[in-house]
Amino acid sequence: MAAMALQAGKLQAQVSATILKSNLDAQKSDVQTLLGMGSQSSPSAALPAGVGGSVDVTA
Questions:
Q1: In this predicted structure, what is the pLDDT of residue 40?
Q2: Spatial distance between the Cα atoms of 18 and 8, rounded to a whole number of angstroms
Q3: How far apart, in whole angstroms, are the C-alpha atoms of residue 18 and residue 52?
Q4: String of DSSP letters for 11-57
Q5: What angle do CA 28, 20, 55 make, to 5 degrees?
Q6: Would you say the C-alpha torsion 28, 30, 36, 38 has a positive or negative sign?
Q7: Residues 32/35/38/42 CA torsion (nearest 10 deg)
Q8: Which of 16, 17, 22, 33 could bridge 38 with an S-S bond, Cβ 3.0-4.6 Å?
């Protein structure tokens, strides 16, 4: 019984770590996009200079 509980705990930790990594990767991608460091094939790469420069982040 203890071995099964230990195995279940290990599985939960692995799933949790996988989800956490996925969330961190998504956040990193979002930040890079906002900073303009995303992939060069993104549609925002074709925008003229100054677009998005005055974004109100106080809301």
A1: 52
A2: 15
A3: 33
A4: HHHHHHHHHHHHHHHHHHHHHHHHHT-S-TTSGGGGSPTTTTTT---
A5: 30
A6: positive
A7: 130
A8: 33
Count of CB atoms situated within 10 Å of the CB of 38: 15
Q: How many Å apart are CA 9 and CA 14, to the nearest integer? A: 9
The 8 Å CB, 24+ separation contacts for 20-28 are none
pLDDT at 42 over 60: no
What's the N-to-C CA distance of the chain in angstroms?
A: 52
Structure tokens at 31: 């930040």
Give pLDDT, residue 15: 95
Asked whether the whole model's pTM tops 0.70, one would answer no
Phi, psi of 13 (to 5 degrees): -65, -40
